[in-house]
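Appendix C: a fully annotated inverse folding record. The material below is reproduced so that readers can follow the format used throughout the book. The structure is listed first as tokens, followed by the designed sequence.
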């Protein structure tokens, strides 16, 4: 029932955003960036709809066995740029989150909605636990048959004693206590998504210096849909 009810306000957001976009186009709005901002709202609402759809198919809701992830060809560079743009309002300024790809595109066979959740959680943490005047940098590169994504901030960092437990659901590092509200499930969710893709995740952090989270994802899931991929994908930095 809750999932059903969540779709109603999302439909309202979609409908009024489309109306405002048409109005902006017809009137040739003098507000710089209005159309782009409305499109970001539309993209964010669409992402929320995908998350609701994914929630509706979980075993806890349906009572069925876990379903295979919806694998599809996804450009990680485009996805990172889209997620960075959507995070800018929370960042406090338009240039705080920067995406630095070492390649023009980074295409793999992944769960797009899952990667949106992954990067959304990493950006949320980086913005939440670093000063508003410090940048957050997303880098992307190739390493053979792996895509490598890193999110780096210049924030409060994590104490060495806390690092082994940062992926534990509900665990809150000592440096984070009192800094920002949170239920501390973001990194646990990120790790789960990475593991579902057959990837790896690591954290490098130093107190009062910053934190870098690095995710490695296989460019192809041949064991899942080998016929859809053709030759094994590989890239070089």
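Designed amino acids, in order:
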């Amino acid at each position: 029932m809750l999932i059903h009810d969540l779709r109603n306000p999302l439909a309202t957001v979609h409908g009024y955003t489309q109306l405002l976009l048409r109005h902006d186009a017809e009137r040739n709005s003098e507000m710089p960036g209005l159309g782009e901002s409305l499109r970001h709202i539309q993209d964010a609402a669409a992402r929320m709809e995908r998350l609701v759809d994914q929630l509706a198919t979980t075993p806890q809701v349906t009572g069925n066995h876990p379903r295979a992830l919806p694998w599809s060809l996804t450009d990680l560079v485009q996805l990172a740029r889209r997620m960075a743009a959507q995070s800018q309002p929370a960042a406090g300024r338009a240039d705080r989150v920067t995406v630095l790809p070492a390649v023009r595109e980074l295409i793999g066979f992944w769960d797009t909605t899952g990667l949106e959740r992954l990067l959304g959680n990493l950006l949320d943490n980086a913005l939440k636990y670093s000063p508003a005047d410090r940048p957050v940098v997303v880098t992307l590169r190739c390493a053979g048959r792996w895509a490598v994504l890193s999110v780096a901030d210049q924030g409060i960092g994590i104490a060495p004693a806390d690092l082994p437990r940062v992926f534990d659901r509900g665990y809150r590092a000592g440096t984070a206590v009192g800094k920002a509200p949170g239920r501390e499930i973001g990194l646990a969710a990120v790790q789960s998504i990475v593991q579902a893709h057959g990837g790896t995740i690591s954290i490098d952090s130093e107190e009062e210096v910053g934190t870098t989270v690095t995710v490695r994802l296989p460019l192809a899931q041949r064991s899942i849909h080998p016929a859809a991929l053709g030759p094994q994908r590989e890239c070089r930095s």
